[in-house]
Amino acid sequence: MSGEKxxxxxxxxxxxxxxxxxxxxxxxxxxxNEGILNDNLVFIDDNAELHDINGHxxxxxxxxxxxxxxxxxxxxxxxxxxxxQRLAERCCIDGLNPWTIIADNAVxxxxxxxxxxxxxxxxxxxTSNIRIGKYFHANLYSYVEHDCVIxxxxxxxxxxxxxxxxxxxxxxxxxxxxxxxxxxxGDPLVIGRGAVIGMGAxxxxxxxxxxxxxxxxxxxxxxx
Length: 224
Ligand code: UDP
Description:
This protein is α/β, with parallel strands linked by helices.
């Protein structure tokens, strides 16, 4: 018999602030449903003053990666998409595995493709024929309707209503309760890269990249 030691897989939620503490219970349930002991489930936070929170240890990134990286899985639960990208790229370079977390009551219908590292919160519905990039966050009670295409590092705050035939480019942020009007087949409504949609906005037409829109109907936030 070989004396080689087999390490246990380890799992982490990166970020021990508001977003991370909301995601941790989902991570715990997912591991339990997969029959994996959750003794190995920790937070990673690089600035934490506490050693544990809500029953889980908080480690720094350097502490976490001391274990076998090939068996280490990380979900990045930080709302800021630029930070998410920076941390995701570092994890990738360091050979860690991206971890997708999907709440067990999320509804996911036909032909929905999610790229790596997404977080799908409770009461989210993704209907059919949808393409979603990496590290998407769909917060509580959001939905994505049919034939939408969502880029990488997109963030939905709670209660976003994204109707059918909408394209959302990388790093867009959609505020809580925003409603995005449906596009048409072959002529989608497009929310540009890095655009920010204010809380409660009603988006009725395309939004240019890196702009901020608010209100009903949504219009450019004037710079004063
Ligand atoms: N954070 C980190 N490493 C980084 C950047 C951020 O550990 O390189 C942590 C930060 O310390 C904080 C969390 O990520 O605890 C982000 O929390 P914040 O309240 O800003 O946002 P949210 O939880 O809503 O995403």
